[in-house]
Amino acid sequence: MATSWGSVSFGCLRGVVGRLKPRRLSARRGRCVSLAVFLVWMFSLNQLLLRPILSVNEDVVLSEEPVRETAPREWRWQLVPGRELAVYAAYLDYGEEPSSAKQVLVTAVLNMTETRPLYCHFVSDHSLPRSVTTVGPISSRFLGHSYPEHGKTVLLRCPISNGTSSPVAVRLSGGDEQWVAVSSVPDKTLKAVWCLGPLYDRYDEVQILVEQLEWAKLQGIGEVIAYVDSVAPQVMAVLRHYEKEGLVRVIDWNIAHLVNRDVYYLGQLGLLNDCVYRNKHRAQYVFLHDVDERLIVPHQLHVMDQIESIFKAPSTAAAVVRSAFYRRAPKGSRILMHSRMKSSFYPHGVRSKVIVRPRFIDATDVHDVDAVSVGYQRVAVGESELFLAHFRFETIDIGYSGDELLPDYVDVMSPLVAAKMELLAPSAPMNTT
Questions:
Q1: For residues 89 and 107, is the Cβ–Cβ distance under 8 A?
Q2: Backbone angles phi, psi at 365, to 5 degrees
Q3: Fewer CB within 10 Å, N or C, the chain?
């Protein structure tokens, strides 16, 4: 009589838990051994077949270490227990001196269904026992448009009462001991910072990343802050190399696994505003554009002199820069020598990007600033002064033409990029697929 694998496995299970009679257990022992050998063989075959695939497509995600709930944390997403809320970082918002701070701003993602009031709990000393100050209900500033199906990026405003010492950590209602460290006085000041990201979906464009980071060095940018969701191992090797050089700071932005609903474009608005507040008192200028975009001054190699000229009025807090598409092909090729421009620039507010003096920005959007401090203004920059070249991979060359606006980077940048690519080749091979 034929016996199915299901009946054999069920019989083995009953035997294990001791429900089979001894005389029947002996008769089934051979079948159980056969089943065990078969399952071990199938598991080994499965592992052998999957290993090459996993090693090629492995994501590099930075949020895998366990959460230490008893210590304040910086720049890591964490859920607030019992709430549809995830918090990331907290910043002391002050004018001339930290002692003048009136509020702490918390970068967060809030599901639209969360309507209960929130309270902030401060501590002004890391030592124990802690003296906790509670304020609230607190207000929030929603960033961008409302998408009911998505988590919403917000800035939570925690007011500081008169006479209260500057907080060193904060937690939100329901957070138990999940304290978030409050960033205050910067460790150094920089001329310019470029906020880059989010890098996501196993980003693997080594060549483009190296060119852009070498461009940043050429322009005198003091730091590139790379917000990472998931990147290919070779890209992480590039980022870590430049991090050791002191140019790049890698920031964990692995947000998708923390909230029950999707966060629109991986919380890009939260990222941009986080970077602005992170650099309020440590950078004169902050550039807010993507890895495949480059600031261009027509017929010139360097951009900082022109940016200084655009911001010469003390009341200028932000500059909105028009964008134009540049075609690059094939994927993996250098944008230094493979680019053609489309015929027109997009209007301000449409695919444009911004440069800001972060100290005077209350909130920014992706393509324009959302709010500047009282007494300050944003300016719309003409493409004859400065524009943004957006390099796009497209297989069909329609609507593109040669142009004379891109400066000749080849003589200056090609040797820099070639030398860096050769140095990185063992750990970061170029992906040309």
A1: yes
A2: -110, -175
A3: N
